[in-house]
Amino acid sequence: MKQSKDIVKDFQIEQFQHDLISWFETEQRILPWRQDQDPYKVWVSEIMLQQTRVDTVIPYFNNFIEKFPTIVDLAYAPEDDVLKAWEGLGYYSRARNLQAAVREVHEQYGGKVPHTPDEISKLKGVGPYTTGAILSIAYGVPQPAVDGNVMRVLSRILSIWDDIAKPKTRKVFEEVVHEIISKDSPSFFNQGLMELGAIVCTPTSPSCLLCPVREHCRAFEQGVQQELPVKSKKKPPRAVQIAAAVVTDEQGNFLIHKRPNKGLLANLWEFPNVEVDLTIGTEQTQLTSFVEADYDTEVVLDPPFTVIQHVFSHIVWNINVYKGVLTGNIANRDDLKLVSVKEIEEYAFPVSHQKILKEYHKIT
DNA sequence: TAGACGTGGGC
DNA sequence: TGCCCAAGTCT
């Protein structure tokens, strides 16, 4: 592996900084989290932007800040409210970690976001990228903030051929950024690198002719910008068969269940469902047995009225959706509720189960 | 280290 | 349609 000193050899650092920052000053997009440098807002935006597009984040960010304008507001909010504000954004542990970290800041740091790498990176959900982003953007500290954009842009500019899918590769880029980051304007340097990756130096067809740092780009010089970055393929998701039931009582209330506080879609609400194992028995039998045993009640299920496929990054759910009627009382537990069609809107559901409800409404 | 962890959009 | 992606972190 090459040393960062060698990679940066003969690179016109100061000219590059100037060209990048000047471009960012005039061409940056107007975004809600760029209206001020409130560390809390920078923090919230950076968490939301993890693996998520800017256009997707904008409405969620505005709504989230309206509901939880300050660290104190978020710290004292019910977790269900926070998850409801996150509903549809994905990677829900981000929301729960953010609230836990905000509580930590409120209790341990008097409500002020700390401004050292050690303290910030200890907060839940704050890794090396977000640490650098908060430090540079909110506090002007020259700390690398290496995300996918930065690795793509710098792999091209500096002709770095390490596989960016490997965790250790991020360290290579962090070392490089340490060498070339502007000490005068680390915020605009880091954001400029990311902005460039988002709107000019894009993955499949980079707009090199519009690029403000084209003169510095080794990949462009050699015509290999399409070959970079090197990124190995991910494994395809595994298929899982699910049987779910929309169960209602005599009043038309829906039976819903809160998922466990760890793992996939933690603490979100859902319709009763089981992972099917066809070697045990029929799907309908397994679903009925599960609901009756686990919820201590009785149900009668009709055959499936729809099939839903939902693709996660690592799993594919194939869901057969049954319609059912509750014929007994349900166990008195916090993770089990009977709610009206109106009340159900107050609960945070994963998109897969929103699809189930939508299909149910079509047939009723 | 590699897998878990979501979703919607682009081509 | 299917695949890849988008401002990563945790275990």
How would you describe the overall organization of this protein?
With 364 residues, the chain is of the alpha+beta class. It is 43% helix and 14% strand. The chain is built from 15 helices and 7 strands. The strands form 2 sheets. It has a 4-stranded mixed beta sheet, with helices on both faces. The chain binds a DNA duplex (11 and 11 nucleotides) through residues 45-57, 88-94, 97, 124-130, 133, 145, 147-150, 166-168, 170, 191, 194-195, 197-198, 203-204, 233-236, 263-266, 310-315, 350-352.
At a glance:
With 364 residues, the chain is an alpha+beta fold. The protein contains 15 helices and 7 strands. The structure holds a DNA duplex (11 and 11 nucleotides).
